[in-house]
Amino acid sequence: MEQVDCVVVGAGVVGLAVAREMALQGREAILLEREDSFGTISSARNSEVIHAGIYYPKNSLKAKLCVEGNRLLYEYCRSHQVSMQACGKLIVASDASQLDDL
User: Fold this and answer.
1) What is the pLDDT of residues 10-62, one digit of tens each?
2) How far apart are CA 70 and CA 76, in angstroms?
3) What is the DSSP letter of 48?
4) Structure-derived torsion over alpha carbons of residues 17, 40, 46, 7, reported in degrees to the nearest 10
5) What pLDDT score does 1 carry?
6) Distance (Å, whole) CA 57 – CA 95
7) Single pTM value for the model
8) Roughly how many angstroms between the first and final C-alpha of the chain, as a whole number?
9) Number of other CB atoms surrounding residue 19 within 10 Å
10) CA-CA distance, 100 to 13, in Å (whole number)?
11) Could you tell me the residue ranges of all domains in the chain?
């Protein structure tokens, strides 16, 4: 029987990233996908926004990971000539009760 180091199930954005990381580490990886093409289910329905982590509780793990992921994704795009727009975001208060949160 043939053996491989890693089998990744699902060729969405996470599955592709895991398979890539395994290959970069020199591991043989097989990527399994039930659809005809990769990224056609949940990954195809994302907002295509690189999130900043501002909507998560301050100092939460989610916020910290989002901020770090944001930095890494922009760095990756720059180093691999992937087109992207860092257009920023404007957040405004719709009433005085939201001012402290801003």
Assistant:
1) 999 899 999 999 999 999 999 999 999 888 887 777 777 888 888 899 899 99
2) 10
3) -
4) -20
5) 57
6) 21
7) 0.63
8) 59
9) 21
10) 36
11) 1-46, 49-83
